[in-house]
Amino acid sequence: MPAKGQSTTHCNRGHLRIPENTWPGGRCKECSKVRRAEGRDTWRFTKAGRLSQKFVGMKCRYGLTQEQYTKMLEEQDGCCACCSVKLDSSCKNLIPHVDHAHEEGEQKFSKKRVRGLLCGMCNRGLGQFKDSLQIMEKAVLYLKKFAERASS
Predict the structure, then answer these.
(1) Of 120, 116, 114, 113, nearest in space to 77 by CA
(2) Are 96 and 54 within one domain?
(3) Span 47-64, mean pLDDT?
(4) Is the pTM of this model over 0.85?
(5) Residues 17 and 77 placed together within one structural domain of the fold
């Protein structure tokens, strides 16, 4: 049963609804082309559109709302939770990254336990060390060993 005002054979603009002319969700491909030409698909490229997409993705991946994100950033005084550098969205390496715990056998879109906001360098570093305290402790010992040699 089609929705109110919707035909089963034609879209709202009168294009024929055939498998070759419809996207998997049922939207008309011809109408999509017309909407792009009219500039209606440009909203996601605006500042408001990018922010909206960012927070929708954050809500899906981490269960974190915009208000929770802002509050977390304020609690950290706008700094990285790991190295305390001031986070800045205009600099690629200083964009706040959501740090979360990786669980064993975790599914791709399962809600993750958020730990804090990190700079890109710290976020990548923790990822490279696989969130393992043993590996990180070995790295600290390694650095201390060479720091002692350099000071001697």
Answers:
(1) 116
(2) yes
(3) 86
(4) no
(5) no
